[in-house]
C-alpha cells in the first residue's frame, strides 16, 4: 500500500527540489541585474543621448501619444521606450553571458590535458604484464 504524504511534506519536497531553488536564485539575480541595467540606461546612456541629440530624444518617448475623439489617450511612446529598454537589457545580458562563457572556456584551456582513459588502461595493462 502506497504511503500517503501530508500536504506540508509534499510542499516541502517541491520547494526543496533543485530546479525550484535554481529558479528562485535566478529570479533574485535577474531582479538585481535589472536594477543595474536600469541604472546604466538612466544614468549613463540617457545623458549621453541627451548630450548628442538634446533632451527631446530622452524625454520624447513619454510625450509620444495619440488622443482619440472621445478623450482617451494612447501613450505609445512609453511602449516604444519599454521596447528600447528591453533591447538594451538583452544586449547587456548577451555581453555578460558571452564574457562569462569566454572566461570559463579560457580556464578549461589552461588546465593541462592528461592521458585519456584508454591510455591509462593501456599503461595499467602493460604494468601488470611486466609483473
Molecular structure report:
By secondary structure, this protein is mainly alpha-helical. The protein has one domain: Large-conductance mechanosensitive channel, MscL, domain 1 (Non-ribosomal Peptide Synthetase Peptidyl Carrier Protein, Chain A, Orthogonal Bundle), CATH 1.10.1200.120. 79% of the residues lie in helices and 3% in strands. The protein is built from 5 helices and 2 strands; from the N terminus they run αααββαα. Strands 1-2 form a two-stranded antiparallel ribbon. Strand 1 and strand 2 (73-74) form a beta hairpin. Helix 3 (55-63) packs across helix 4 (76-110). The protein is elongated and about 95 Å long. The N and C termini lie far apart (57 Å).
Main attributes of the structure:
5 helices, Non-ribosomal Peptide Synthetase Peptidyl Carrier Protein, Chain A, 79% helix, mainly alpha, 131 residues
Amino acid at each position: 500500500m502506497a504511503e500517503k504524504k501530508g500536504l506540508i511534506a509534499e510542499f516541502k519536497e517541491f520547494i526543496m527540489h533543485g530546479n525550484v531553488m535554481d529558479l528562485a536564485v535566478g529570479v533574485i539575480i535577474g531582479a538585481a541585474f535589472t536594477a543595474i541595467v536600469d541604472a546604466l540606461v538612466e544614468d549613463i546612456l540617457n545623458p549621453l543621448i541627451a548630450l548628442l541629440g538634446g533632451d527631446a530624444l530622452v524625454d520624447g518617448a513619454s510625450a509620444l501619444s495619440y488622443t482619440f475623439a472621445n478623450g482617451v489617450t494612447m501613450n505609445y511612446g512609453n511602449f516604444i521606450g519599454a521596447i528600447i529598454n528591453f533591447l538594451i537589457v538583452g544586449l547587456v545580458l548577451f555581453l555578460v553571458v558571452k564574457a562569462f562563457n569566454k572566461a570559463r572556456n579560457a580556464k578549461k584551456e589552461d588546465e593541462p590535458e592528461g592521458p585519456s582513459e584508454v591510455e591509462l588502461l593501456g599503461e595499467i595493462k602493460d604494468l601488470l604484464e611486466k609483473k
